[in-house]
């Protein structure tokens, strides 16, 4: 028997339109259940709530407490700290609105670094230098900080070009951040060396296995990668003829004085890192919701970091093994080697590849969603598809293959009105993929 779970805090803006696109009541039911459980998850992993809870569990006590909050969830995380602690000074770095934020707030850029990224890092360093040995600095870190918060060894122009090349290269986030760290004066643990104060870091994780050295390019954690690793990645992805000469010269020089902070030299005595929210928790919440709605759960046991085409094949093979009235939830962050000039992101492109493969599966629905609310260079967070999606597009005279070729999945789903539009999610914990068989 199916149980309805309603979320009073619905954040999906176009839910009614998505429901209206269903061919029949079974597809409408699958779409409704998928969106219900997405809302259920978002309500429970709100970054304000998870930081508030963690501050109740940890006794942070000092005469002077400073805050450095950076990333896509920086504003709600900072608000929680301001309510729970007596903050002397601090900074919030975000790519969103700074409204009602009582600390100095810098609206920086994402996914491309800018002058604001450098301003943000310099402002944070000023705060760190003010903090003394008996003081506390509370870092509040979430995904997106790698672009929003930077002080580089190379020029801003070279940094911007490099970032764009890396994002479109097909690299996963760990490899991208390996190169980023070795161009940075603050990442790979280096920012911890600007102060003698005690540091607590509360982290909303957007990477596989909560790798602290990769989240936000490892701001407050040691780094095991080296310049040799960074150069090897440049070779593996054939970037020697693409990256700026200034960047190549710096990486190839491999000067030890610019190396990231290694484990043996990391200040463990005064730096503690805590994961307060992650993708695994989000997936478990979605599974709980689907289970309460009457679905049996197929355990995927996976965090996908595959190329988008390979990820689609993997997911569809899993779907084909699903029984009736079952569901599957997978987390991850697939990669796309961008060749076209369209609008979209990895989630919408994945959804379109899956739609192509399930077009004869009338009892199947699939959704891919970026938990920060924005997928790639599009304003949407992802898309929902079912066995009728490709057939409906063809009936409308839309050639989906052209949209795939041009990496223009957002435009495709805009025409079908099946892109998912989400208000501020207050988090960033990678991506969620939901499959349902009715």
Question: What's the layout of helices and strands?
Answer:
Elements lengths: L14 H6 L4 H20 L2 H11 L7 E6 L3 H11 L4 E6 L9 E4 L7 H16 L5 E7 L2 H4 L7 H12 L5 H9 L16 E7 L22 H10 L8 H9 L17 E7 L1 H14 L3 E3 L4 E2 L3 H12 L6 E7 L13 H12 L6 E7 L11 E5 L2 H7 L4 H6 L3 H8 L2 E2 L10 E7 L1
Parallel strand pairs: 1-2, 1-4, 2-3, 4-5, 5-6, 7-9, 8-9
Antiparallel strand pairs: 9-13, 10-11, 10-13, 11-12
Helix pairs in contact: 2-11, 3-4, 12-13
Description of the structure:
The protein is of the alpha/beta class and about 450 residues long. The chain folds into two domains: about 15-45 and about 280-435, MOFRL domain (glycerate kinase, domain 1, 3-Layer(aba) Sandwich); about 45-275, Rossmann fold (3-Layer(aba) Sandwich). Helix content is about 40%, strand content about 15%. It is built from 16 helices and 13 strands. It has helices at about 15-20, 25-45, 45-55, 75-85, 115-130, 145-150, 155-165, 175-180, 225-235, 245-255, 280-290, 310-320, 345-355, 390-395, 400-405, 410-415; strands at about 65-70, 90-95, 105, 135-140, 200-205, 270-275, 295-300, 305, 325-330, 365-370, 380-385, 420, 430-435. Strands 7, 8, 9, 10, 11, 12 and 13 form a seven-stranded mixed beta sheet that branches. Strands 3-2-1-4-5-6 form a six-stranded parallel beta sheet, with helices on both faces. The model is unreliable at about 1-10 (pLDDT under 50).
């Amino acid at each position: 028997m199916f149980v309805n779970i309603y979320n009073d805090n619905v954040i999906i803006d176009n839910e009614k339109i998505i429901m209206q696109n269903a061919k029949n009541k079974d597809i409408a039911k699958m779409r409704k259940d998928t969106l219900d459980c997405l809302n259920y998850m978002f309500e429970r992993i709100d970054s304000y709530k998870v930081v508030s809870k963690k501050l109740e569990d940890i006794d942070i006590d000092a005469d002077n407490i400073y805050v450095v909050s950076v990333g896509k969830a920086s504003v709600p995380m900072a608000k929680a700290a301001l309510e729970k602690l007596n903050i002397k000074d601090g900074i919030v770095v975000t790519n969103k609105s700074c409204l009602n934020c009582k600390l100095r707030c810098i609206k920086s850029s994402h996914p491309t670094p800018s002058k604001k990224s450098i301003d943000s890092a310099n402002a944070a360093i000023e705060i760190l230098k003010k903090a003394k040995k008996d003081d506390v600095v509370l870092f509040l870190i979430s995904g997106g900080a790698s672009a929003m918060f930077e002080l580089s060894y190379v020029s801003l122009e070279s940094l911007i070009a490099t970032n764009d090349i890396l994002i479109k290269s097909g690299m996963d986030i760990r490899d991208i951040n390996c190169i980023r760290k070795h161009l940075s004066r603050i990442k790979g643990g280096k920012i911890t060396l600007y102060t003698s104060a005690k540091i607590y870091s509360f982290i909303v994780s957007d990477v596989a296995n909560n790798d602290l050295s990769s989240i936000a390019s490892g701001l407050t954690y040691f780094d095991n990668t080296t310049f040799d690793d960074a150069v090897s990645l440049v070779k593996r992805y054939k970037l020697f003829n693409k990256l700026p000469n200034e960047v190549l010269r710096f990486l190839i020089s491999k000067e030890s004085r610019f190396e990231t902070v290694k484990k043996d030299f990391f200040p463990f005595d005064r730096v503690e890192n805590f994961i307060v929210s992650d993708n695994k928790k989000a997936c478990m919440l979605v599974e709980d919701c689907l289970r309460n709605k009457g679905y049996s759960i197929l355990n995927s046991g996976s965090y996908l970091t595959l190329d988008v085409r390979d990820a689609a094949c993997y997911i569809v093979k899993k779907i084909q093994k699903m029984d009736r009235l079952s569901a599957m939830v997978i987390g991850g962050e697939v990669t796309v080697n961008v060749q076209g000039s369209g609008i979209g992101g990895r989630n919408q492109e994945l959804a379109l590849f899956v739609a192509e493969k399930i077009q004869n599966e009338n009892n199947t629905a699939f959704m891919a969603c970026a938990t920060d609310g924005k997928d790639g260079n599009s304003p949407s967070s992802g898309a929902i598809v079912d066995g009728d999606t490709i057939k409906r597009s063809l009936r409308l005279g839309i050639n989906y293959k052209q949209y795939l070729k041009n990496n223009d999945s957002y435009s495709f789903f805009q025409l079908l009105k099946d892109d998912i539009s989400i208000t501020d999610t207050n988090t960033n914990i990678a991506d969620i993929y939901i499959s349902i068989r009715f």
